[in-house]
Amino acid sequence: MRSLLATLAFAVLLAACAPLPTRDLRASPGEIVEVTAHPTPLPSTTGFAPANETAALRTDTVDRIWKTIDDFYYDPGFNGVDVVALQKQSLADATADSVKSDAQFYRALKREVRALHDSHTLILTPREAEDSRARRATQIGLVFTVSEGRVVVTGVVAGFPADVAGVRPGMIVEAVDDRKVDAAFFDHARIAQPEPVGSEPSAVSGDDAERSLRLRAVRALLVSTDGDPRSHRLTLLRADDTTLQVDITARGGDVPTRESLTTLPSGIDVLRLSRFDSSVRDQLARDIDASRQRSRGLILDLRGNPGGEQRLFQWLVGRFVPRRTELGETRERAGSNPVMAPMYAEPASHPYLKPIALLIDRSTASAAELTAHALVEQRDAIAVGEATCGCVVAIRYDYVLPDGGALHVAQVGFRTAKGRRMEADPLMPAIAVTPTLAERRTDGDVVLQAAERALLAH
For 278-288, what is each residue's pLDDT tens digit? Predict the structure, then answer.
């Protein structure tokens, strides 16, 4: 009864709040040019923007954030999390005497919203919201993972500072500036990054939780919180155990969408896609058609693919099915009730119907993860590599905060045609391959090789 009364009181309180306004997630071309030339400052560490300067204004922002979540979050049960407790904690944190700047205010907002344990619901500062809409990232251009306790580079974005400086996949990150990336560093990070206040235990545990903590700790060394991006000195260990030291300054730039098709000596084609963006749709169509005519089988490499446009997922699956195919359903809210709508893939005039393998890893997420599930269920595709992210929901808008920041709310949930929820339920590979540290430091690709063997034996 007490829980019911608290929930009712929460609903009455939120009903009086004005809703947050919305804006498109993608900036117009003119806006992209403008924001690239004149980036929004990072949140102040010494004071407040006018929209945040009083406790009353911050209270209003917190109330409106949680009303928006209450109204639009796709799961009326909020993943079993006590949102009443989170909203109260968020109010207390945002108005505490210790909060004396925008940076501290946003830190509190992010902590409580993150405690929903949802992959897409989050708070963005004004700078982050602008970068998200412009598809721009301020970064050095490195992708890395944790392997056998070491931080190893797995990808380098072409043209970004790390690439220009000569950093290559397989190098081990030994230090960032004067901080050694060693066991003592990770022990300190484990103490400094407790679970957010008000949250239930995370579904991620064991090795994955430790890996996630270590990656966050290294990223934190490379992210500036007190001004524009600054230079970092990276100390890296090459595959031959010689040391490389480079000074790298992050820069802003469009996050590139990369698509490529190559043919292995065996006659198996490899189609790589870095992001689900309609800008590469025509090239994808040409490459899939070319592969259909010449290859023995196709490997679709979705490793590191964070997803993107849902419509491109449905279109892409349509290149591989012989008929109109139901892929599952979307789930949204109408008041307190979920509303379901079916998803379909429309077949191409000449679909690719030869054997398919998928390369997946922990960074395969969202639309990429939808694609992997659909092709496994509908085409018996062979998934090879590591478990996917388990990050399969969608957002509709930026909900605009008073100072220009944004709230992203997971408004759409998904189920596969066989009823699988996918969010927090990663796709497990049929052939599990986790490269060793030694394997990551060579030019070979053991995951790709395993997929090739599987298709040749098909």
Answer: 999 999 999 99
